[in-house]
Amino acid sequence: MGRRGRCGLSMAFVLVAASSLSICVILSWAQEEPTSPEQVMSHGFDCFSCHAINREVVGPAWITIAEHYHHEHAKLPYLAAKIRNGSVGDFGKIPMPAHQDMSEKLAAYLANYILSLKGPLEGPPRKYEYKTSNGGEVTIEFPVFENYQGRQVVTKDIFGGFEKYNSYCFRCHGFDAVGGEYAPDLRKSLDNGMSRHQFFVASMEGRSSKGMPGWAGFFDADELNQVYEYVQARALDLLPTGRPPSQND
After folding, report:
1. What is the domain class of 128-235 according to CATH?
2. Does domain 37-116 have CATH number 1.10.760.10?
3. What are the pLDDT digits (tens) for 29-40?
């Protein structure tokens, strides 16, 4: 084959390779384009550890953020920059960490989604009344028990909190939230006035000065809420030590 023929084949190979590369790039972009916040989270980001759409967790509700910026999409670059670079001050003193590994495209999508949100915030929780093991009465904002096939068991959230606490938190805080060698009795922390919000902040951010890791990115808000409710039920003397009765029994 002549030199010209070989060059022609080489050029054809280059064009095919370049075309394949272009297709791969386009497919990569298409795969990166999210269609929901959950798909943003699927890229490895932990927004739902500290935020929820319609209620405060560690940070403000996303609806609150949208209202703060008056749903103005001109604010999109500003909000996207805050998502990537971190921020503090607009909604209190708790800093939001930077997410430099989030692409500008994903940050812009998330900012656009947040600014589009409207609707009411989660209303005040229902009250539940229970008797403690020593005959006292307490009123709380979440259910501890439910009837299942004619017997009283704990709710799925309480049992989920028991499982998570005794799988992870027990190492420092002791089994069944009784206090441990390395960390305080969380029941006493709640009895001494620690709020749900403060519990979330301490748990998600951690306490590096005391050797406590942050759980943001490992637990989401709903999972940590299960842990909080389990510990609160223990603090209020509504649950004994050990495995509580559940639907799985």
Report:
1. mainly alpha
2. yes
3. 334 556 676 776
